[in-house]
TrEMBL record:
GO CC list: cytoplasm
Domain Glucosamine/galactosamine-6-phosphate isomerase: 88-315
Protein's name in the database: Probable 6-phosphogluconolactonase
Organism of this sequence: Capsella rubella
Catalytic activity: 6-phospho-D-glucono-1,5-lactone + H2O = 6-phospho-D-gluconate + H(+)
SUPFAM superfamilies: NagB/RpiA/CoA transferase-like
GO MF terms, alphabetically ordered: 6-phosphogluconolactonase activity
Length: 325
């Protein structure tokens, strides 16, 4: 029963190999972003750097730097949190690819497997650099195991399907073994699909593909790459929804999602927050209020403000999304 769900849901896709090497980062990449590393456990500022050429952008970056530093001083959770701000989405995408490729390298070498969870939405577009040289050629795709933090309960070829989004923009371009791609069973109801996905995860824990957090007892994914909605939701955990408080189940269903379509399944916070590493990727001025509330813990803190990771949480922001920090 448990093993059936994993293998039956494997999806076939092709993987062009397009070898190239000797890539170096565009010069603008290293000059036009700023970093604020936070170790709130030690309550200590660890590293920070800004460099940008040009008066207007320098001033903007300086202001953002000051504001990011304020965020750092307000951090209270016991986790390592870093806020990266980019003045070009292109540079954000390169850095996100590097972040993911470095983790892939580390986990593939250390444990022979890399468990990666993605959201839907614009995140998939932000991952586009991973399927280009040099990353696409250097990553050990055969060791990847690919999951969704949430999925809409629609057929896999439906325009709303997060599987389809990831397949078209990512999976169809890399050579992850089809058996390592864990899509939901779209022939089930939302509730049954959530139970089925949880059963699948339990099977993967038993077979040591998925680790277990020693702290929480929940599954510990190597990395989650997540987007955030303008209301501050992550996965399908929406502001004020009771599912945000679920503390036993790993995967739950929702049939009244305020963001269409209404029927979805989603990982719960205990699973999300047991991850080793999390990237929260947020772009656009429409999300600035939610970024502010989540990071500064002001007003009604949205679900994104409850995200934490066991090793490191990194916020990848463009300047408009960081504009209220
Ligand atoms: O299935 C979903 O709806 C997503 O997983 C959801 O959590 C998404 O990541 C955010 O809504 C951000 O989406 P955008 O980046 O497109 O705004």
């Amino acid at each position: 029963m448990a093993s059936s769900s994993c293998s039956l849901r494997s999806i076939l896709f092709s993987s062009p190999t397009n070898l190239r090497s000797n890539y170096s980062l565009p010069t603008s990449f290293s000059r036009n972003h700023l970093t604020c590393s936070v170790s709130s456990t030690a309550s200590r500022f660890e590293s920070f750097s800004v460099s940008s050429i040009g008066t207007g952008s320098s001033r903007r970056l300086f202001n953002t730097r000051r504001k990011v530093l304020e965020v750092r001083s307000m951090a209270t959770t016991e986790q390592k949190q870093r806020v990266e701000t980019y003045n070009q989405e292109e540079n954000l995408a390169v850095d996100l690819a590097k972040f993911t490729a470095d983790l892939s390298d580390k986990f593939c070498k250390e444990r022979g497997a890399f468990t990666v969870v993605v959201s839907g939405g614009s995140l998939i577009k932000s991952l586009r650099k991973l399927v280009e040289p040099p990353f696409v050629d250097s990553i050990d795709w055969a060791r990847w195991h690919f999951f969704w933090v949430d999925e809409r309960v629609v057929p896999k070829d439906h325009e709303d399907s997060n599987y389809k989004l990831a397949y078209d923009g990512f999976l169809s371009k890399v050579s992850i073994p089809p058996g390592n791609v864990y899509a939901i069973n779209d022939s089930l109801s939302a509730e049954a699909a959530a139970d089925d996905y949880e059963t699948c995860l339990k099977h993967l824990v038993k077979t040591n593909i998925l680790r277990t957090s020693e702290t929480t007892g929940f599954p510990k994914f190597d990395v989650m790459l997540l987007g955030m909605g303008p209301d501050g939701h992550v996965a399908s955990l929406f502001p004020g929804h009771g599912l945000c408080n679920e503390n036993k189940k790993w995967v739950v269903s929702i049939t009244d999602s305020p963001k269409p379509p209404p029927e979805r399944i989603t990982f719960t916070f205990p699973v999300i927050n047991s991850s080793a590493h999390i990237a929260l990727v947020v772009c656009g001025s429409g999300k600035a209020d939610a970024v502010q509330a989540a990071l500064k813990k002001t007003g009604n803190v949205p679900p994104a403000g409850s995200v934490s990771a066991e090793e490191e949480l990194v916020w990848f922001l463009d300047i408009p999304a960081a504009s209220k920090l």
